[in-house]
Task: structure prediction
Amino acid sequence: MPNVSGRKRSNTATAATLSALQQAQEAADAVRTRTPLVPRAGLILGTGLGDLAEQISDATIIPYADIPHFPTPTVAGHAGRLVLGQLSGVAVAALQGRFHLYEGYTPEQVVLPTRTLRQLGADILIVTNAAGGLAPGQHAGDLLLISDHIGLPMMAGLNPLRGPNDEQLGPRFPAMTGAYDADLRASARQAAQAEGFALREGVYVMVSGPNYESPAELRFLRTIGADAVGMSTVPEVLAAVHMGMRVLAVSCITNVALPAEGEELPEPNHAEVVATAERAGAQLAALVRGVLAALPATL
Ligand code: HPA
Result:
């Protein structure tokens, strides 16, 4: 049947027959027709945290709709564009808006943008997200440096690395022992200190969402060792580590999900999550800029 409705339709038709790597290559090829910039670092900007992209200079802005195979974000607080340019003297490509399992995307679709960043040349991935606080002593607006994760949906099979392994992407059985790069974390701690704010470190647990957790689920997540809970990040980190990228990930604690015993459980809502992330965005932006500025010294 002739394809009269343009590129998007033909992508949908061919996507099933292309490997994940081929899709990422086609996406990267399309980006390269817009800019010759080779990013050193890829950035994924989470819910309400997209403002950092506004600080990128000499920016080339590409709507996801113009990138083959990229889905369209359906969530408020996610713009849906790729911004390439300079940030703190480093060539970066920032994904302003990400995809989630709860939107109905497959794990493979969720990580296509991450794989595209790697195809463009990035070997560092900086991921941000909004998360609910589980550890005591956290406050809305705090930043949490992720030191490790528990990917509940991935452990149960919703894993972007599931299926035939493409050795050109990475190994069949990638280790996650050092997924969150120690040097980048040290650099983040230094940047926070220089900016004068506290930066705790902890374990992020991913749930699929979209519902917020029940009280019993929150107690369970805390019991298994999580300090913060969210609905993203782990798929992208798995894909990035699979491809040999160094990862830094930071949560913005947008709500205290599990308060101290005896206190009433607050009811989270998306508007509050977005508003708190936007308020904390300036600190997060300073942190990322600080890490980028220190890159030549830490590599
Ligand atoms: N739970 C899950 N995801 C979230 C939360 C939460 O409380 N806050 C922001 N993202």
Notes: The first helix runs from residue 7 to 15. The beta strands are 41-45, 57-63, 81-87, 90-96, 124-133, 143-151, 200-206, 228-230, 246-256.
